[in-house]
Write a structure and sequence with these properties.
By secondary structure, the protein is of the alpha/beta class. It contains eleven helices and 14 strands. The chain has a six-stranded parallel beta sheet. A five-stranded antiparallel beta sheet has the order 1-11-12-13-14, covered by helices on one side. It has a three-stranded parallel beta sheet with strand order 2-3-4. Helix 5 packs parallel to helix 6. The longest helix has 15 residues. The radius of gyration is 19 Å and the shape is globular. Bound molecules: (4S)-2,6-dioxohexahydropyrimidine-4-carboxylic acid and zinc ion. Zinc ion (ZN) binds next to loops.
Length: 359
Amino acid sequence: MFKLPGLIDPHVHVREPGQIHKEDWDSATQAALAGGVTMILAMPNTKPPIFDASTLDLALDSAKRKARCDYAQFLGAGPDNADAVAALAPKAAGLKMYLDSTFGELRLNDMTLWMPHFQKFPKDYPIVLHSESRTMAAGILFATLYDRPVHIAHVSLKEEILLIKAAKERGIKVTCEVCPHHLYLTTPSPLHPSPSGRGDGGEGRLEVRPRLATQQDVDALWENLDVIDCFATDHAPHTLAEKDSENPPPGFPGLETLLPLLLTAVDSGRLTLDDLIQKSVINPRKIFRLPEQPETWVEVDETAEYEIKAEHQFTHCGWTPFEGWKVKGKVRKVVLRGRVAFEDGKVLAERGYGRNVRS
Ligand code: DOR
Ligand code: ZN
């Protein structure tokens, strides 16, 4: 048994307001605690999206009533809200800009729509980019032109991690995160069926943005772990019925599988425990300027081996792309600000115990 600091997940889709049949502030934060995550940063592509003072209040009201772990809420960049979101920056996790195709309405195609956000959003609060491939190169150019930090969400490709490496070597203020599914799963092909596609459901279950990539991309991420600042889940729950439908929405749940998968990598020597702590606690805290959580830790049984099963999860969505995977390392207990919040499979923190770390 050993102790870790509470993990920070900088990329979670809570789905409230608007889609609480997928997840809400209660179930998402239960899933977080079960996964050893004591602070989440919530994405703004809800229904309605979080893009001004009243929608921010809507999300924060629900969070205040229901969250069981600590949190902050991102604002979404829209075509004409640069002044509004800049003024709200101190109350939010940061600004999320969707520059590529995604789930929901927030998307900024035209680069002229990026400019006011880069001009106006305060430099001491982070801008997070959903930007893939060449769009990422454009995002990094913007960081240079406007001389401000950007954080690249869910890096998945070899060309992306190599570009970020080169940008960092030039002193450009860019940080990035990677998700476990992009470290562990590859795109399905007849020759290389994805482990998550073993006949356990339709192709819709493999839909995610960024898409799963090739083994070469996965290898490049592992080889360049030192370029990666954070681990993030991109926890994006959709129900099984939705995933198996004609028009499957992209996204995987991830809060409850993050730490077991990382601990399994530690066990097999692919990752050091120091790196795990650096990328899931210390770096996200620094990049997003988050407060320390006093008297907060996770007790882990590093010898426990078990199979990942959706039926044991707290997320509402009812499935996981890692169903049946054997992992080593189990969360036994989570203490959050001096109170036992999770122990032996039970969430003990009550609704409303979670604090908004930006209030
Ligand atoms: O797979 C994804 N799901 N990628 C995104 O960018 C959005 C997310 C969601 O909200 O479902
Ligand atoms: Zn996301």
